[in-house]
Write a structure and sequence with these properties.
With 700 residues, the protein is an alpha/beta fold. Helix content is 64%, strand content 11%. The strands form four sheets. The protein has a five-stranded mixed β-sheet, covered by helices on one side. Strands 11-10-12-13-14 form a five-stranded parallel β-sheet, sandwiched between helices. Strand 7 and strand 8 form a beta hairpin.
């Protein structure tokens, strides 16, 4: 008896499912095998690149070793010895490595031959560098012939290694191409099988299958576009980071000359600081951009009082403009709504980026913020008298890393971040510019909701001059709470120079006790500057305890935790404002005077990063000298904690130095301390030792 149609259909359905499952499983296996064959490429390429770096380091150290004395000489000898050991080990790993799966017969002998050809130069470099190291240990000068031989062999080795890298990269690209070909062929085979099964068995699901394939194609296109953008982004970032970093290194080498005149030394130091500040702005902008692109922020729509928002923005920008000798003007061209339905933080960030960009690129003249409203929109116009933007660059001015002119300074991220945030807010930014006459950036925001209009002369709150703001600190009683004594010394020195009376607290418990005492005795306490990360009771717990006890005075978080999430956490805990370390004196004075004037602190956007010169020039010389004298002891304590793997103690010491070092002009030391703190909290020995070496070099 022949099988029934139902049984035939069931059998065909089962066969189709088995074929599909087998095709998918086989496809996954082949793709994984193809990818696995290409996996060793990254290790080999990394080792080849590491050989180049170590060769350059050995040559550089031996070249300057005869000029060094004392502790610097000992550190250089340690670095040379370690570099030689790693140089030998990495080369042995390359020469003893197993053949890379999938490496073609044409390429594999070539790579092996080049490595073999580099062996004499490699041995000569180790031998000559070892001889120089032994002579340095005996306090004897190395023979010039040895240094010349070492330099010559290093150059030959680098040339050969560069050729080896290119040869190996060609093989890697070939392997990747074969893996893609296999994946493409397998995809085609899978598609044919699925189409056949769909026609024979799964006709009802054919529409869904087509939709699925279209989605996969779209995802593949998106992935390829993302990979292409990532490659361009990394290439651009590499160039952008190397440029200011090279300037910092170059100025540092120039400053090593003890014969420099004071004027020339100040010129080189100022150049190094400008480059370091540019590098910091680039890193901060990149972090902001990554958060935006990753969607790690949310919009909080609320009725925002326009006058208060503009007051906060202007209070940040006005000192920056005045510091450059620019006239900063604000005016409302029409009556404007009392409130706007938008996100106050994001709108403030867009305005700050646009205004900060105008101030940065304007060397003389003025920057103006105007506002006008219609029934449907509210427009913010930022006008400057800068150099203007060429017409051929105007269309791409909002692209990342794009600048208005080839020789313009800056990271090239501010306008891109501003335009991205504006788009998320439902707004748009328009730009007009004339060369040698300046630019106008117009932020147009939809006007949502009903609101009373405010007359033009009432839109912008009166802004006191910086001198007036400073005078308002005379006689003020301010409590500075920080577990780091250097940080307390810095803030005390800044405030006392402006006439304030300062009391100190070393931890959260002492801060709460001092606030309760002020409540009990009726003593006037104008402001509390409170650190967040302290032993025992931290700053967040301290502010909650102070508010519960009834303390309603001005409390400002003064902390190295400077992200937007940290700021929001502080404001939600009860702080009136949030300022990031290293300290910007102008921003600190403005925050205190705003709080005293208003009675409560506004939730201002994060202030721009201060310059080290701005703070260091305000500190008494004896404060700077004392910090320098104690720095060696602190580095010794860190090294001891690192050797004993006392991670909590090491993290605490690094955290303290992270906040204070930039204030004394040691921005690189501050970044190295931050890296050391993170490595200590993770218990990563290798990363911690590398960070400590960087910190010690920067501090010295």
């Amino acid at each position: 008896m022949p099988p029934s149609p139902t049984r035939r259909l069931s059998r065909r359905y089962a066969i189709g499912l088995l074929l599909m499952a087998g095709t998918i499983v086989a496809g996954q296996y082949v793709v994984q095998r193809s990818l696995a064959r290409a996996a060793p490429d990254s290790r080999v390429l990394t080792r080849l690149g590491r050989q180049e770096t170590l060769c350059q380091r050995i040559t550089a150290i031996t070249a300057r070793l005869p000029e060094l004395e004392g502790a610097a000489r000992e550190r250089a000898m340690d670095d040379l010895n370690q570099s030689m050991l790693e140089f030998r080990a990495t080369y042995e790993q390359l020469t003893r490595a197993e053949p890379v799966p999938g490496l073609s017969s044409e390429t594999s002998p070539a790579v092996a031959h080049r490595l073999e050809a580099l062996a004499p130069a490699h041995a000569t470099i180790l031998r000559e560098a070892g001889a120089v190291l032994r002579l340095a240990s005996d306090r004897a000068p190395p023979e010039p012939a040895r240094l010349a031989t070492l330099a010559e062999q290093s150059e030959q080795f680098l040339e050969g290694m560069d050729l080896t890298l290119r040869t190996y990269e060609a093989g890697a690209i070939s392997r990747l191409g074969r893996a893609r070909a296999v994946a493409a062929g397998l995809s085609a085979l899978t598609l044919l099988v699925l189409i056949a099964e769909s026609l024979l068995v799964f006709q009802p699901a054919l529409g869904a299958l087509r939709a699925y394939l279209r989605e996969q194609r779209r995802l593949l296109d998106d992935a390829e576009e993302a990979a292409s953008f990532k490659g361009r982004f990394l290439a651009t970032m590499s160039h952008e980071l190397r440029t200011p970093l090279a300037a910092v290194v170059g100025y540092a080498h120039l400053l090593e000359d003890e014969r420099l005149a004071d004027g020339r030394r100040r010129e080189y130091a100022a150049g190094a600081l400008r480059s370091a500040e540019h590098l910091l702005a680039l890193v901060n902008g990149t972090l902001d951009l990554s958060k935006i692109e990753a969607g790690r922020f949310s919009l909080v729509q609320d009725d925002v009082e326009l006058t208060a928002l503009l007051d906060r923005v202007v209070s940040v920008v006005r000192p920056l403009a005045h510091g450059k000798g620019l006239l900063f003007r604000t005016r409302a061209e029409t009556p404007v709504p009392r409130t706007l339905r938008t996100d106050a933080v994001r709108l403030g960030q867009v305005l700050l980026n646009l205004l900060g960009n105008a101030v940065q690129y304007t060397s003389e003249g003025e920057v103006e913020l105007r506002i006008r409203a219609s029934e449907a929109e509210v427009s913010f116009l930022i006008t400057d008298t800068g150099p203007g933007i060429p017409a051929d660059r105007l269309a791409g001015v909002f692209a990342p890393f794009e600048r208005g002119a080839p020789d313009a300074h800056g990271a090239g991220l501010g306008l891109h971040i501003a335009s991205t945030l504006a788009e998320r807010l439902g707004a748009r930014i328009e730009v007009r510019s004339e060369l040698e006459r300046g630019s106008v950036f117009e932020l147009v925001l939809p006007r949502e909701g009903d609101s009373d209009l405010v007359a033009g002369d009432r839109v912008f709150a009166p802004q006191p001059s910086m001198n007036t703001a400073h005078r308002s600190l005379r006689g003020a009683h301010i409590l500075v709470a920080d577990d780091h004594p250097d940080q307390r010394v810095i803030v005390r020195a800044l405030l006392e120079r402006e006439g304030a009376r300062v009391t100190e607290a070393a931890d959260g418990d002492a801060t709460v006790a001092r606030a309760k005492e002020a409540i009990t005795t009726g003593e006037r306490l104008d402001a509390v500057l409170l650190d967040i990360q302290m032993p025992g009771m931290d700053g967040l717990a301290a502010i909650r305890a102070m508010r519960e006890a009834g303390f309603d005075g001005l409390v400002i978080a003064l902390t190295a935790q400077a992200t937007e999430e940290d700021r929001q956490q502080c404001l939600e805990a009860g702080f009136d404002d949030h300022l990031a370390k290293p300290i910007a004196p102008a921003a600190l004075f403005a925050a205190i005077t705003r709080g005293k004037r208003a009675g409560t602190q506004p939730t201002t956007p994060s202030t721009p990063a201060p310059t080290a010169t701005d703070l260091r020039d305000r500190l008494p010389p004896q404060v700077v000298l004392k910090f320098r004298e104690q720095l060696g002891d602190r580095l010794g304590a860190m090294e001891q904690a690192l050797d004993r793997e006392q991670w909590d103690e090491l993290a605490a010491l690094a955290h303290m130095l992270k906040g204070t070092a930039p204030s004394f002009g040691l921005a690189e030391a501050g970044r190295a301390a931050a890296e050391l703190e993170q490595a200590a909290r993770l218990g990563d020995v290798v990363r911690a030792r590398a960070a400590f070496r960087t910190l010690r070099a920067a501090a010295n």
